[in-house]
What does this fold into?
Amino acid sequence: MDAADTVLTIPDFCLVLLVGASGAGKSTFAARHFRPTEIVSSDTCRALVSDDEADQSASAAAFELVHMITGKRLAARRLTVIDATNLKVRDRKPLLALARRFHAPVVTFAFLLDAATCVARNRERGARGGRDVGVEVVTMQQTELRKGMPGLRRIGNFTAFETGAAVDRITEIRRVPS
Ligand code: GDP
Ligand code: MG
It folds into this structure.
């Protein structure tokens, strides 16, 4: 990606999957480019069912909510952004099935940052009272991401953007009528 790629174009109705390790900047990116109501966040859904966005034991219930909200939104042809790690094929499968069912193009943003950056950002976030998942979790997630990239490049009937440090240079995500 170079400086000319700072304006990206996506359909005005689509399912956006953010894919990346904890600390990669998914939530920051989502908040910068999408409306709060367009973002379905697994952390928020965990908090909705357990009062704790970090409570992994709440994940099953949280993802039921993620899928339900996503289905309702896509049925209403509302652009929807999934703010979750979305690293595993089995994590993405129910979301891709919803996209197919409601004829929503899929746009993926893969956050290809190095592990050290993700770990450092987790640490900074932790120091500010947020979540720090630690080096082991990030390392595992990074392995999963790299392993999954060939498959990720094949999904989506629209397009996949790969964002490394270049994510900061995405100044605008332009929506075109679909
Ligand atoms: P997520 O776990 O992928 O949702 O990552 P977050 O969006 O929570 O970002 C993790 C930490 O990195 C936060 O403290 C952010 O403020 C910081 N961060 C996110 N994006 C960027 C970025 O593009 N540049 C820098 N320097 N920091 C970022
Ligand atoms: Mg996040």
Remarks:
- The chain has one domain: 6-176.
- The chain has a mean pLDDT of 92.
